[in-house]
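Sample entry (184 residues):
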Amino acid sequence: MMKPVDTATPTERRLLQSIVEVARHVFGAAASSIFLVDPGSGDLVFEAVAGEGDGQLVGTRFPAGTGIAGWVAASGQSMLVDDLRESRHFSGEAAASTGYVPDSIMAAPLFSDDECVGVLEVLDRGTDGVREMADVELLGLLADQAAIGLELLTRLRAADPGNRSDKALRLLEMAESLLAPSHG
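Predicted structure, serialized as tokens:
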């Protein structure tokens, strides 16, 4: 595990944080996280964490291909493993370095322009009403929302300010105000 280098802006990080918090709540999970793929190195970088490890993992990197998140990023396919002791893709060493070793993981890729840009993971989801395929599909929908939100924020920021429409500017301002930390 390598230590922090930021790849997401504060607004992007708040968007991702809101998604991992929703994922953790929806699945009754011990934790949820989003890794983004560093375009330069291919490393997986923790960008948002809810639950176990939420205080210290943001910015932490793992080499490309590490663990289930690495497999999902490389293959572009979702994965659900209810018993990680039986998974050849699970990296117990990487998990131990985070301070939390889960028993199960559900992971889905985040796509932008047909390229995997990250991975949404849910660790140790609750067992009440577990519907394996429906859970994986729902996680995929949350991953799609994360990817679309990131792409929208990136495109709005990259546009020449003189060429942004009033509607685009209002949307960017609204997104940033909704994702701003609460006051009070």
